[in-house]
Amino acid sequence: MYTCICNAIRECELRKAARQYQTGGAESVYAKLGKRPNCGHCLEDAQDIIEEERAALFEPASAA
């Protein structure tokens, strides 16, 4: 699914970038992808995805 239509950034690409670049917000991650926000409608959703992905990096593995 596309998170940013203007830049054709897919959710999976955004999640991968959030894991690789663990600082900065949506605009910073877009820059790391060589993009920049155009219309800005995606930024809130993109930020949520980035925060979710980064939080998952620090969650302890559940005992099975």
Mind explaining what this structure looks like?
The protein has 64 residues and is mostly helical. It has a single domain (2-55), classed as Arc Repressor Mutant, subunit A, CATH 1.10.10.1100. It is built from three helices and two strands. The chain has helices at residues 11-20, 26-32, 43-57; strands spanning 2-4, 9-10. A two-stranded antiparallel sheet has the order 1-2. Helix 1 (11-20) packs across helix 3. It is elongated and about 40 Å long. The termini are far apart.
Annotation keywords:
about 60 residues, mainly alpha, Arc Repressor Mutant, subunit A, about 10% strand, BFD-like_2Fe2S-bd_dom, Ferredoxin
Write the layout of secondary structure elements.
Elements lengths: L1 E3 L4 E2 H10 L5 H7 L10 H15 L7
Antiparallel strand pairs: 1-2
**Helix content, binned percent:** 40-55%
CATH fold name: Arc Repressor Mutant, subunit A
Assigned CATH class: Mainly Alpha
Radius of gyration: 12 Å
The helix-and-strand class reads: mainly alpha
By DSSP, the count of extended strands is 2
Helices and strands, in order, run as EEHHH
Whole-number tally of structural domains: 1
Distance between the termini: 31 Å
Task: Please name the fourth-level CATH homologous superfamily.
Answer: BFD-like [2Fe-2S]-binding domain
Which blocks of ≥5 consecutive residues have pLDDT under 50?
Answer: none
The CATH architecture can be given as Orthogonal Bundle
SS strand fraction: 5-15%
What does the overall shape look like?
elongated
Strand order of the largest sheet: 1-2
